[in-house]
Amino acid sequence: MASASPVSHLIPYLDKHLTLSYVEFLLSKEIFPREQLLTAKFDILKTTHMVDAAIDTFKLLHPTDAIPEDLTSKKADIQQKTAQFDEDIREFKDLLSQDSLKEDGTLDAKISEAFARRDPARTFDLIYSYARFQYESGNYKLAADFLALFLSQYSLLLGADKAATSIPLDDPSAKEKRLAAALQAAQALVSEEKRGQVLWGKLAADIMQKNWDSALQCVTALKEFIDMQKGVSTQLQLLQRTWLVHWSLFVFFNHPNGLNLLLDLFFNERNESKYLSTIQTTAPHLVRYLVAALVCNKRRRSMLLKDTVRLLQQEHYHYGDSLTAFVLSLFSEFNFDAAQSRLAQCQEVLVNDYFLAPLKDEFLENGRQYIFEISCKTHERIDIATIAQQLHMPPEQAEQWLVNLIRNARLDAKINSPSSISMTIHTPTIFRQVKDKTRGLTYRSNALLANVEKRLSERAAAAAAAAEAPNVGWVRGACGSGLEDSGLSAHSLCVKSAPQRMSKGLFVIKPYKAAQAPEKDYEKKIWAILERAVNQIYDKNSSELSYEELYRHEYNLVLQKHGMFLYRELQNCITSHLAAVAEKVFASRDSLLMTLNGQWVEHQTNMRMIRDIFLYMDRTFVGQHHLPSVYNMGMIAFRDAVIHQAKVKERLVAMVLDEIDLERRGEVIERSVLRNITKMWVDLGIDGKGVYEATFEEPFLAKSTEFYQRESQQYIGQCSCPEYLRRAESRLTEELARVDHYLDYITTNKIRKVVETAMLETHLKLLIEMDTGLVAMLRDEKLEDLARMYRLLGPIPGGLALVKQVLCEYIFQTGTDLVVKDEEKSKQSGPFVEALLEFKAKADRLLEGGFSKAGKADHEFVTAVNETFTRFINQNAKAPEFVASYLDEKLKTGTKGITELEMEALFDHVLVLFRFLNDKDIFENFYKQQLAKRLLLKRTSSDELERIMIGKLKQECGYSFTSKLDGMFTDMKVSDDQMDEFKQYLEGAETPVRVDLHVSILTQGYWPNQIMAKCNMPPEIDTAIQTFQSWYLGKHSGRRLTWQPNLGTADLKARFRGKLYELNVSTYQMVILMLFNDRDTLTFREILQMTDMPDKDLRRGLGSLALQKVKVLLKEPDNKEIGDADVFRFNAEFSNPHRRVKISTFITHKDKVDPVETRTKVDEDRKHLIEATVVRIMKARQHMDHQNLVSEVIKSLYSRFQPAPKAIMQRIESLIERDYLERDKTDRRLFHYLA
Length: 1235
Fold this sequence. Notes:
By secondary structure, the protein is mainly alpha-helical. It is built from 55 helices and 14 strands.
């Protein structure tokens, strides 16, 4: 099946300006992405002269980008060309602007005089170029006027050439030769190709300004032009016909008689199936429009149905959509279920089609009727419930619909029970069939007899005249001079004296008769005949009218310069009939709507019949004198005589508004009548919708405003916020459906504005601040209600801004309670981060479920929420430390209880919190210290998880942020490789090393700075250290090793009560325990003197060995403090159920990381970073003022922290003192870089 929008098939055959109107229609739909359509629109506009429109479209696509220079330069060029053209064409513009010349009919003569004073060929070129320039600039009316001028002057030139051409009249093909000679003379000035271009341009300009009558004339002229071309290949003719059928869609689907003309184009025998062949050959996608025209044209359906079905059957392999499938299902396969299903699918196709959207309701209604009619002709009894199910209607509504349909279609049926309809199927008798087929035979026989008698009388008169002529010489003498002047001679004639013996094919020359003067009051006598015909049409007695004879009378009157008389008399006649219609409508009282609807339908039918009689006047005289067409004149008369009559107008509008009011209160009304009435108002606007807007729309909107203001006041005091929003949305949906069913589409935005203003904008703040308002919905996560509020308040000025403000206030207040006021969560890393993660997840659910469009959270709301998270999280100064500590804990414990993918997802969520931190350098400092401990003390659960986390930080902050972290991993890998080489070295060494030594070689710039600590190692350890140091320095000359015993660990084997244990201790603990190999008891001072380690580290080591649960040493006195006089002895009675015992380091409150010390270190690092940034910027710029320099520094360092302007200024002063920068001598706020 074809897509709902055949844009890809149609656009290649349309002019770019016609394509623009198609793109504007698509922008109102949601078939294609809006950005893609705007790009296509801009690409088209920049190839035209409509530069302002192109610039506006560019701003919609790129709001922050500068306007391209080629557009601005092109605008200047167009203005210059416009001025030049205006100077060259001024004379013709002045003539066209004088309405007085148009009224007295002298315009063509004046323009011809202007042509005569110029070079004709150059003048035609100038007018063509100017019209094309105006068309490209979007001035379609001016372009159409000058193209019409071009064609009228061409016609005058052609007529003058025909008159001036001398061809002997005795030549049998004299007429054709004169025409050919005239064409040749005209084409010497205007080529046939250019004339064709003018016709195409005139058609496009008329379409763009919606002048459908003129556009229809252009379509007819182009048909003739294409058919009359000589020396053109059939392929080119086929392509031109393809263009024409595509362009004519704009005309046929907007002209009042367009659907009939569309069917004529493809099925009329006079077209010799040329355009039907065009569809089958190059444009099968146009079958859709042929089907739509047939379904919407009840009068011609029966005549053309077979041909259409045959065409669809032939073409269904090449093209098919819901419309064609519906027709085939119903009229070919007689599958009613499939037809109903296809009809339901047609709605989407119709709504999204540029040409078929206005026909949607009519197509669907007719489709339902056709299904029912075919079903009625097939079945004797129909179940109403089944029909209701097929039509997707409630049974009561379906029953009413069926009753109306039976009445309108005049079907012989009745409802004999509450659930079924009985059909009476009549088989006509032979007598009836013969009578039906010969019904018009009498009229046709009489007409044929009259024509035969007329011919016989003319032949008898000719024979009598010939008998009176004595011989040929008389004939010649009687009219010789006139014959000779005409180019004929008597010897070319053969005349017999006896009429009874006159042979077939001989000429009879009658004596010359002088032209007779017109009969007195001729025009009045002819008008009397025409007036009787018009009266018969209004009396519904038009079956006996001879349209051919009436057309001939009208044609003669126009030719004899009585066109204005005829037009005015016809106008007066129609007005007099409509006066009676107005009285009848007014007298109908309560049934005014039904009566008016019937009279309107009859008037439209009457005007079509009248237009057919006065067709020649309509096509020639009316257009030349710029009068409304006959049909439009009838519409204007109906508007003025009936609709705008005060007593009818007031009651009509009041009754329509009352019907709408009843429907708003839940009652069922006749929507079809209201649809016809509103469509009548639209049609009576002729070239616009002013009648609809002034007569109906303004009072409708005013009454709707009053209704919804009253209802909103009632609801706001009774309903909760969610309930009120549900009712408001329901009302808005009802109004939009009302517009779709029986109002005009231009009312859509206006009634939407009325409902939104009365029910939402007026109570906006109250709705949001209610107890059940926005905050309650956010707290309880009522996503459906939030989404409804977001949808409804979107179009309200300031609506979403207020919602966003309240949302941010709620998030800030709730977040502040979590990170500042909650004692438990604000002081511990685990609860702090987990609470934030949970709250962020809730915020994400609110954004995605309540504040999203097109399935994606609103970008502005997301940005506002993220900024709010940033504000409240950074109120807690420990936030960077807590986030780093939380990650440290997770990386230590690893994937216990969760998968690796879940762990990675957790990292992503924590990384979101990391983005909200202002002081990312503090996070980096803590994370680096904790990573160092995990790596050195072998506490990390997985190197892979560590690398994943570092990769995410690198992706977030860049390589510079994680370069040191990567370096730490590199050092650990290099250390492992170095130790493998050292072990190979020991295997060949002369002096064996009794200790299994593993050294981690750390690059000083990568790892956190550590305090240099002394410690006397046991002899065994010291020998191993010296051996490694001599090996390493011998291998890497120029390097220096600094030992950090406080970062090491050791495994000791110890025997207690004959049982061997393996103790895992720190390096300091190992040094202390090794002292007890020689002595059982040692004092604190002795241990301090023998180890020479820092006092603080010694106390921590002794405390962990003697004061914890695992007591390898015993202390006297037995208390919780380590004193200078304390005595320690080896605990020989130590026992533990595990062979391998880990002794953790004893930590006191004095040993914890000091935040003040960490902050001081970070501040010092920040000073260096600010100075480096200032120097880098100034080196690149050389000169910079104070404000711009501070802004650039803040921008450069934003990813790590937000420096205060005061701190930046202090660093600048420091750089000035050290001769990196200097102030300008005249402007003290300007700095210069010193190389």
